[in-house]
Design goal:
The protein is of the alpha+beta class. It contains eleven helices and seven strands. The strands form two sheets. The chain has a five-stranded mixed sheet with strand order 3-4-5-7-6, with helices on one face. Strands 1-2 form a two-stranded antiparallel sheet. Strand 4 and strand 5 form a beta hairpin. The chain starts with a strand and ends in a 5-residue tail after the last strand.
Length: about 400
């Protein structure tokens, strides 16, 4: 029986399971409904055969013979009405209330309706329906005496059977509510993880924007300084004027390059009273970063194949520093004691490649250093904004590798 959660419905309790009346039945719904219909129809057929036999084994209505025929008609109608239990479960339960007192052949159909209400409807309504069946059980037993069993044992068996159906329905109800609860928790956890990823990306964008702001301000200040020198020294030699003009041209070109990188990245203002941030590290600070890791006990092997490292653009150098920093941090967290290899290669026009690798930890366990797992998300965002590529994961040799390529335009 498929179900859905409908919040804030006027006749539903919060979080109650309700039948999906507004949608089409699934193949599983059709199968369950067909089995319920066939089970009830088989009971009606058994009642018909038993009533026409000379020595009936089932409880027949006390009174004229036409009451048996009426009972059969009521059983057929109740069996056919089972196809409506998904769309109008409450209405069907109310309409079949008198049958709990009058009809034998409708017994299975009534139990199916009772099961449906207990599973899908609010518990007060289900309790009222169960109470009706228990209250009418003595009168039903008196009107339909069992030829092979006394009154009280028959009544006890009826109550026990109703209790078994209710217990089964409550188990199904609890299981479905548990499944819905677990599904809701999974969806919330996924949404929270996506929120953390988005926050990491936004923080990385903010950090890049701040770095670009500092670099751009530095370049423009240099440009202003040389332009001011030309203004106050109009009598300078042509060689000095040409040199200053070249510096101005180079600074303006570099400033435009940095401006292209920062476009689209919003800069969040630091909180009031916060100390100004220190200059951001670049490629030249990577040796100090590696020395710091070695001092902390990490074994690092470095291969530096960068051509003309002093000419690396500041933005590219900062990205390389962050990538190496993240790779060393991951190695300390997840593969303590392993040898970490750092390789830098590239040059103007060919781009700059960074690769950090370490053996996969034995048993897949690392240290208990806390972390949210968003460091690689920030690095990926940085590399993407720079127009590069990033790959990370386990290699065919069983090692972990973090590699990136960043564009480095020729001079």
């Amino acid at each position: 029986m498929s179900s859905a959660v409908v919040p804030d419905h006027p006749w539903l309790l919060p979080g109650s399971l309700v039948p999906a009346a507004v949608r089409r039945r699934t193949p599983r719904d059709w199968l369950v409904d067909a089995m319920a219909f066939l089970l009830s129809a088989a009971w009606v057929l058994l009642f018909v055969v038993d009533s026409s036999s000379g020595s009936p084994q089932l409880a027949l209505p006390v009174g004229p013979g036409w009451l048996t025929e009426v009972d059969i008609v009521l059983g057929v109608l109740a069996t056919g009405a089972l196809w409506l239990r998904r769309r109008w479960p409450v209405g069907l339960a109310v309409a079949t209330l008198p049958l709990a007192l009058l009809s034998v052949s409708a017994s299975v159909a009534l139990l199916v309706v009772l099961f449906t209400v207990v599973v899908h409807q609010p518990l007060p309504l289900a309790a009222a329906l169960v109470g009706w069946h228990l209250v009418t059980a003595p009168a039903y037993t008196a009107l339909h005496p069992d030829p092979s069993m006394p009154f009280w044992p028959t009544l006890a068996w009826s109550a026990l059977f109703i209790g078994a159906v209710v217990a089964w329905a409550l188990f199904v109800r609890a299981r479905r509510q548990l499944v819905l609860s677990l599904r809701d928790r999974a969806e919330r956890a996924e949404a929270e993880q996506q929120l953390r990823v988005d926050q990491a990306r936004q923080l990385e964008r903010t950090r890049i924007a701040r770095e670009m702001h500092d670099v751009l301000a530095h370049r423009i200040s240099l440009l202003s300084l040389h332009a001011g020198a030309l203004e106050f020294r109009p009598d300078a030699s042509p060689e000095k004027i040409a040199k200053a003009a070249g510096v101005i041209r180079g600074s303006a070109h570099a400033a435009l390059q940095d401006l292209r990188e920062v476009i689209g990245v919003l800069r969040a203002e630091p909180e009031g009273g916060a100390d100004p941030e220190r200059p951001q590290p670049t490629l030249g600070d990577v040796p100090a970063l590696i020395a710091e890791s070695r001092a902390a006990g990490v074994r690092v092997a470095v291969v530096d194949q960068v051509v003309d490292g002093d000419a690396v653009p500041a933005a590219v150098g900062r990205s390389v520093y962050r990538i190496v920093q993240e790779g060393l941090t991951n190695a300390r967290k997840h593969a303590p004691g392993a040898v970490v290899s750092v390789r830098l290669a590239g040059g103007p026009g060919a781009g700059l490649a960074v690769e950090i690798g370490n053996p996969w930890p034995v048993g897949g366990t690392g240290s208990a250093i806390p972390g949210t797992g968003t460091g690689l998300v920030g690095v990926a965002e940085r590399v993407t904004l720079a127009g590069g590529r990033l790959e990370h994961g386990r290699t065919p040799d069983g090692d972990f590798r973090l590699s990136a390529w960043l564009p480095w335009a020729a001079s």
